[in-house]
Write a structure and sequence with these properties.
The protein is α+β, with helices and mostly antiparallel strands and about 325 residues long. It folds into 3 domains: about 100 residues, Orthogonal Bundle (Helix Hairpins), CATH 1.10.287; about 45 residues, no CATH class; about 120 residues, Immunoglobulin-like, CATH 2.60.40. Strands 1-8-5-6-3 form a 5-stranded antiparallel beta sheet, with no helix packed on it. A hairpin with a 4-residue loop joins β5 and β6.
Length: about 325
């Protein structure tokens, strides 16, 4: 299984290491990479910042517990994704040489998703079965009860149709500060027919100047890997939701900045694809299983300083309906 890069790796300690071992490892590494001993060394300053972050999390019992839960969740997801791949690819990946140690930024901890536990699926299946039986009883009761009364009272009570229930609005899931595009249905429009077909959608990224509030000003992706030299997926991220039912095209032709794209699965509440699209280019995110997705993106400015940032683009991003 592919190894998750964690704060334990940054401090070169085992995951079950006691606090005194973590403290000693941090002290030894900080003495080596401290800016006072490496004046003008940008790499040493970057490594020291990563070490400080790692010790700040592992030195706090509550934050360390959250980090351990995040590791367990990520390893479960990678194991699930790798189980869908061929054995040859798995063996080739294990045979590849390991990289030399160097601390890298670690993704922000996220709560453990109980939906990944197989027991959760069994519990949900039982709940759906019980709920379906209860719904049938509730729906049939308005029809059966008046008929029974009418039979007993010799037709005194006539069956009455039940009033339709008012639709309950479903709140939108909370999202971060990313720009979001998804398919919308016009108000009052008829629901789409239940037809199984290949879903093809498109995200048109609007033109926009560099924006300090939302643009990324970094030479590497959030997982520590370098941005690709060409438009495509970013190394280090797994490719989730494989299938042949859907394709999403990210059109960045009108934008002068490259964009970092996340494809978010609304049902699983997880990012399943991570891509990088150069300015004035497009990318087809294909081989997707059918589902409900959001496309989240940020402009990436590799060279501009924050003082050069302009106002954010006002044109909203829109993902048209699939044909």
């Amino acid at each position: 299984m592919a190894k998750i890069h964690t704060h334990y790796d940054n401090l070169k300690v085992a995951r079950l290491a006691p606090q005194e071992v973590i403290r000693a490892a941090y002290k030894a590494l900080s003495q080596k990479y401290h800016p006072d001993k490496n004046p003008g060394d940008e790499k040493a300053a970057r490594i020291m910042a990563i070490l400080n972050t790692a010790y700040g999390i592992l030195g706090d019992p509550a934050r360390r517990k959250e980090h351990d839960e995040w590791i367990a969740a990520e390893e479960w997801e990678i194991e699930w994704l790798e189980s869908t791949r061929s054995d040859d690819a798995h063996k080739a990946r294990e045979a590849a040489p390991a990289h030399a140690w160097e601390p890298r930024p670690v993704g922000a901890p996220a709560p453990y998703r109980v939906a990944r536990d197989p027991k959760w699926y069994l519990a949900m299946l039982a709940c759906f079965a019980a709920g379906g039986a209860a719904a049938l009883l509730i729906l049939e009761q308005p029809k059966l009860l008046p008929v029974a009364l009418a039979t007993v009272l010799n037709g005194a009570a006539a069956p009455r149709a039940a009033a339709p229930a008012e639709p309950v609005p479903v709140p939108e899931p909370a999202i971060d500060s990313w720009a979001v595009s998804k398919a919308y249905v016009a108000a009052g429009a008829a629901p789409p027919p239940d037809v199984r077909t290949l879903g093809v959608t498109q995200l048109l990224v609007p033109a926009g100047a560099p924006d300090c509030a939302s643009a990324l000003h970094t030479l590497v992706a959030p997982n520590g890997e370098a941005w690709p030299a060409a438009t495509g997926y970013i190394d280090g991220y797994p490719l989730g939701n494989p299938g042949e039912q859907m394709q999403i095209t990210v059109d960045n032709a009108n934008n002068a900045s490259a964009v970092f794209v996340k494809l978010y699965d609304l049902d699983r509440r997880a990012n399943v694809r991570h891509a990088y699209v150069l300015a004035h280019e497009s990318l087809a995110i294909d081989k997707l299983a059918a589902g409900k997705y959001e496309v989240r993106y940020q402009n990436v400015d590799l060279g501009a300083a924050k003082g050069d940032c302009g106002a954010p683009a006002k044109a909203p991003a829109r993902l048209p309906d699939a044909p």
